[in-house]
Task: structure prediction
Amino acid sequence: MTDASAAAATAITGSALEDAPTIAAFDARLVRVPLTRPWAADVTSVGVVATHVVRSDGAEGWGFSWTPQIGAEAVHALLANDITAFAVGRSADPGSEWLALWQHLHEAGGGGLTTIAMAGLNLALWDAAIRAAGTSLPGFLGTQRESVTAYGSGVNLHYTQDELVAQVRRWVDAGFDAVKVKVGKPDVAEDLDRMRAVREVLGPGRALMIDANQRWALDRATRSLEVLAEVSPAWIEEPLRADDLYGHIELAKRLAASSGIPIAVGENLHNVYRFDDFLRTGAAQIVQPNVVRVGGITPFLGIAAIAAEYGAALHPHLLPELSGQLALCLRAVPGVPAPMAEDVEDAGFGALGALLDPSPVRIADGILTDVPHAGLGIRFS
Result:
């Protein structure tokens, strides 16, 4: 085990409290949240499995699992059956049972549907613990910064160039100093035309990140990034299949010898071991864990420990209502950029009207701040 993975293991397993309450009841319900701006012709809503836990001491907590299109029913089934049967009667301490549950579910896979489902329980347990303490997530973990930079993001490869430029202008007008757009058109010349138009709107002083969403193979990625280096991308996200570790290692070597564009991965890595693999081998320089896809706050903090050990930047993926709170709490690492929060246009749970309470965060002028709230502050209506 590397020093980084040892640090992560410590963060994940924690230490059980002898007098910790137990899980008395747990339930999950599946809801569909319509998207204002469809992410594709067949992605007009996102699936949310809203969860609720009751502890033996009467404290309650609310959490959720999330998947844009595929697997919501399977996630709900795991929560309603295997996870509930395993969890009820066990410790309600958010960290002490995570590894045991992961090992219990491992026959169904070490990540993906299993960890996405695990987040539904883990987040509810954290919410219960934080509400019982009478505070919020930043108050519970300890706020390290008063605000974090948010960047404008969109699922926009299917936009026309005019639509893309209009979106980027909206972000600039809203005060964002960094934006992320999709690349991966069949002809890289079209990508370059689109990115030139985006860069013209941004000017030289704002950051432009590009995301290929796993569309390229190694040689195509190499050729495409040689071309797109012209627009000075701050990073290239998911240039290759997310599970192609050795392809990323080779691409990182090629980029280091040419444009120097850093590689960002993480939205489709599902456990701490994979994050350790990518950072230990130099396959990625930036990690973007999705707090739901990795299994909740407990493993997210383990991944943050790994990133800190390797001196890698960490920018949480999506879900700014929760990711933004975590970004406020991540400890600063000397020489490493501070975490940023991703704000996909018109896709926040608050903006979509999906929350029972006001959003626990506020994004204005490209800056995310905490709004006073209890627990995680995320209950679905």
